[in-house]
Amino acid sequence: MDVDTFFEEMPFADLLGVEVTEVADGHAEGRIEMRPELSWSDETVMAHGGVTFTLADTIGGAALVSLVDQPVPTIDMRIDYLEAGTGDLRAEAEVVRCGDDVGVVDVDVYAVEGDAHVADARGVYKTG
Fold first, then answer.
1. In angstroms, rounded to a whole number, what is the distance separating the alpha carbons of residues 125 and 33?
2. Residue 37: which residues within 8 A CB-CB, separation 6 or more?
3. What are phi and psi of 47, to 5 degrees?
4. DSSP-assigned letter for residue 83
5. How many Cβ atoms sit within 10 Å of the Cβ of residue 120?
6. Helices and strands (DSSP H and E) totals, the chain
7. Overall average pLDDT of the 3-28 stretch
8. pLDDT tens for each residue of 18-66
9. 7-11: average pLDDT
10. I need a surface site. Which of 7, 33, 43, 126 has the fewest CB within 10 A?
């Protein structure tokens, strides 16, 4: 499954503007451009937690898709928010385990400007 097909099946990620920038061999990277409508505050543009979560979940899934070549529904994801995302965000994902039924992926989310570590997540996805 190529990246384009992966996103054609995910209109929500497309709506938010999640962009996959690299996918290969259990690794994926992506980004999202922050805009006022994705903020939790009217006064300062700061990523709503759901935006950060969606970026992590989507890029984590993309890393696993690179190995199993099929859609991978999310079973569970745990995320720790470490700092407010006040600008564009980028995510890096690495597959920890790719089993016949379940895959596990670690994802780190960073601010594009300043490289602050915004969140760290672990996703569990259905592979079989």
1. 25
2. none
3. -60, 130
4. S
5. 16
6. 3, 6
7. 83
8. 999 999 999 999 999 999 898 888 888 889 999 999 999 999 999 999 9
9. 71
10. 43
CA-angle at 107, arms to 43 and 56, nearest 5°: 45
Structure tokens at 20: 């996959």
Token reading at 40: 């939790």
Q: Three-state DSSP class for 63?
A: helix
Q: Which amino acid is at 98?
A: C
Phi and psi at residue 2, to the nearest 5°: -85, 165
Q: Average of pLDDT values for 70-89?
A: 94
**Token digits for 51?**
């935006």
Do 14 and 5 form a contact (C-beta atoms < 8 A)? no
- Do residues 29 and 91 make contact, with C-beta atoms less than 8 angstroms apart? yes
- pLDDT given at position 115: 86
CA contacts within 13 A on the Cβ side of 30: 30
Question: What is the residue-averaged pLDDT of the chain?
Answer: 91
Pick the residue with more confidence: 82 or 39? 82
User: Could you give the CA distance from residue 56 to residue 35 in angstroms, rounded to a whole number?
Assistant: 18
- pLDDT attached to residue 73: 95
